[in-house]
Design a protein that fits this description.
The complex is a heterodimer of chains A (about 425) and B (about 200).
Chain A (H helix, E strand, L loop, with lengths): L12 E6 H11 L4 E4 L6 H12 L7 E4 L3 H13 L4 E5 L1 H16 L5 E6 L13 H4 L7 E4 L3 H15 L8 E6 L7 E6 L2 H7 L32 H30 L8 E4 L6 E5 L2 H15 L4 E6 L1 E3 L3 H8 L4 E6 L11 H10 L7 E6 L9 H17 L6 E2 L2 E3 L7
Parallel strand pairs in A: 2-3, 2-4, 4-5, 5-7, 6-7, 10-11, 10-13, 13-14, 14-16
Antiparallel strand pairs in A: 1-8, 6-12, 9-11, 15-16
Chain B lengths: L9 E9 L4 H15 L3 E6 L9 E9 L15 E4 L8 H6 L5 E5 L14 E5 L1 H8 L2 E2 L2 E2 L2 H12 L4 H12 L4 H14 L1 E2 L1
Parallel strand pairs in B: 1-4, 4-5, 5-6
Antiparallel strand pairs in B: 1-3, 2-3, 6-9, 7-8
Helix pairs in contact in B: 1-4, 1-5, 3-6, 4-6, 5-6
């Protein structure tokens, strides 16, 4: 293993920073060895900040590679990772779509690359604001996908990601997604941890032998990713990716526990985080920035005497099926809020479709009311979220569905078409 | 001085400025100032679009003494409004945001007609532009208004003083620029007046 040297200096401090800067600090704290970057709004300040860190000598030894497109970003991160280094990049929206082909090369090669996504709406019309459709579109690429609700969680989740991804039982790349502008460009206090403590939490950087399944040696050239006949192991490799993804759930849980022990911050069981679900009549499943604001909506309605609760979904891939079933046995009705679209799917929302699938044929589980809101950064206010909870209460008590339903899904906050 | 006695209350501030007048940075600095002063939580929320120099822009800051802030939404009923440019007082969005009971801090060298506003408005004036011109505190397209505006805001609210400003400005912009920054902060701190 590579000995951590003390030239990455960081003492624990709390600073008021943007979500993007929080992501950059996390990459620095994780001592990433190779960063490749191409700017795209609203991610740009992540890689800008990292270029400052590298340029100012705060990340000695880290290679920063500027390229001409996101496709090349991922290609260079993949090859750097194959050579046995800890790697990082960030992107969003159209940039992620341009990167798409290379995403499969990363997961297919079982590389523990961590990429932050400041999610934005897919064009057209051109849109740069919060919408998770970009990262959801990568559902079947074999990348793990986690969401962040706070500025602190971005920093924390990136650190946890390296520990999960680099585990020899997992070895899969991972997205850490958060709402563009809502988290990327707002500023909040964030605790940046002591470097020694981060070093003790993370696995050591890979040594010159690299990852256990790849051996890159110029003295002994080999070809990787070449054509494999249908009778070869292609099929089996695919099965192993799925197997690793499912087994990653246990790793995610144990890393969340380790994280809490080391740094004192709790993220539920890692996959989900329940909030005031005890004694609740109805519950809301929600992810990303709106999950934090929904906590306030739950607090406010609880104060008014309504028995409501919520579940913050932290992972989309792997999907926490078992946890969702458990939650769905606690209440008769669950709302599921998507800030993303899955056109033509059972509900139109990627997560609500997934929740319905998870509960299919499981007896005694909640009815699901799928909701969609905030597409393309359309503002979702606290009042609106309180109203969403009240819709659930009403449906539960009287069976009355809200207006503005489209094929069984409630689309909240639409403009009136005159 | 501050007119909110409820320690549980989250204090909300709206910034109205024009692109290039540094109002977005002001919203971030206010979050930093409050946090440095001991507020337990703060969030700066810029409204980002395709702004250009001179276009009306908006930003919000929420600060809280002892309760975590869990919302990301825009401020609708601010406790304070800072207006960086008097020409914005004609802007419908700005007009609409000025509601009964709010405290206004306006960058203006001239008196402002109070009858323009709803009842129960507290109005403070500071000549931030004049201070910047006088001190040569300019960037490529005009005066850097955020520091004097925040100096005046600290004085009118009592949320932080010049010492806290010195600490934050040193951290944010470095020792080299500290004297220039503090000169305009101080000028505004000392000259802001209730109208």
């Amino acid at each position: 293993m590579v000995e951590a040297t003390n030239d990455f200096v960081q003492e624990k401090e709390t600073i008021v920073i943007k979500g993007n800067i929080s992501a950059a600090y996390a990459a620095k704290s994780a001592r990433v060895q190779v960063i490749s970057a191409y700017p795209i709004t609203p991610q740009t300040t992540v890689v800008e900040k990292l270029s400052e860190f590298v340029d100012n000598g705060l990340m000695p030894g880290t290679q920063y590679i500027k390229v001409e497109s996101e496709h090349s970003v991922m290609a260079s991160v993949i090859t750097a990772s194959m050579a046995g280094t800890r790697t990082f990049t960030a992107t969003a929206g159209q940039g992620l779509f341009y990167m798409f082909e290379m995403l499969h090369w990363a997961s297919g090669s079982r590389l523990p690359i961590v990429t932050t996504i400041a999610s934005r709406g897919a064009a057209p019309p051109w849109n740069i604001w919060a919408d998770f459709t970009d990262v959801m579109s990568c559902r079947d690429t074999g990348w793990m996908t986690a969401f962040c609700a706070t500025h602190q969680e971005i920093y924390d989740e990136v650190l946890m990601s390296y520990k999960i991804s680099e585990d020899y039982e997992v070895l899969l790349p991972k997205f850490v997604a958060y709402g563009g502008f809502i988290l990327s460009h707002t500023s909040k206090p964030v605790i940046i941890e002591d470097q020694d403590l981060v070093d003790s939490f993370l696995p050591p950087l890979p040594d010159e032998k690299g990852w256990p399944h790849l051996w890159i040696d110029p003295e002994r050239p080999l070809m990787f990713g070449n054509l494999i006949m249908p009778s070869g192991f292609y099929y089996e490799f695919r099965m192993k990716i799925h197997d690793a993804m499912i087994r990653a759930k246990e790793k995610i849980k144990s890393v969340a526990k380790d994280f809490e022990k080391t740094f004192g911050r709790n993220y539920g069981n890692g996959l989900i985080q329940e909030y005031k679900m005890e004694g609740a009549d109805v519950g809301m499943v929600i992810y990303g920035d709106l999950a934090l604001q929904m906590e306030q909506a739950v607090d406010d309605l609880r104060e008014e005497g309504y028995k409501v609760g919520m579940v913050k979904l932290r992972y989309f891939r792997p999907f926490p099926v078992e946890d969702i079933i458990k939650i769905a046995k606690k209440v008769p009705l669950l709302g599921v809020v998507d800030r993303a679209t899955a056109f033509g799917s059972p509900t139109g929302g990627p997560v609500s479709s997934e929740v319905k699938t998870a509960l299919h044929e499981v007896e005694g589980t909640a009815r699901i009311l799928p909701m969609i809101n905030g597409l393309g950064g359309r503002e979702v206010t606290l009042e609106q979220q309180k109203n969403q909870l009240k819709i659930l209460i009403k449906l539960n008590e009287t069976g009355e569905l809200p207006k503005d339903m489209l094929y069984g899904t409630y689309w909240d906050g639409l403009l009136e078409v005159k | 001085m501050s007119n909110d006695t409820d320690m549980e209350k989250i204090i909300e501030v709206t910034f109205h400025g024009r692109g290039g007048q540094t109002a977005i940075t002001a919203s971030q600095l206010l979050a930093q100032l409050a946090y440095e002063k001991g507020f337990i939580d703060a969030i700066a929320i810029p409204i980002i679009g395709a702004e250009r120099r001179g276009a009306p822009i908006q930003a919000f800051t929420k600060i809280s003494r002892n309760k975590p802030i869990k919302t990301y939404d825009s401020v609708v009923n601010p406790d304070y409004i800072m207006v960086f440019d008097t020409s914005l007082l004609e802007n419908p969005r700005v007009k609409e945001s000025i509601k009964e009971g709010v405290t206004l801090l306006i960058n203006s060298a001239k008196p402002i007609d109070l009858s323009l506003f709803p009842k129960n408005i507290k109005l403070y004036l500071v000549d931030a532009t004049g201070i910047c011109i006088n001190r040569g505190f300019m960037h490529s397209s005009g005066p850097i208004l955020n520091i004097p505006m925040l100096g005046a805001f600290g004085k009118t609210t009592g949320y932080y003083d010049l010492k806290v400003m010195e600490k934050v400005l040193k951290k944010e912009f470095g020792e080299n620029r500290l004297e220039k920054n503090m000169n305009v902060a101080k000028d505004a701190y000392e000259s802001v007046m209730e109208a």
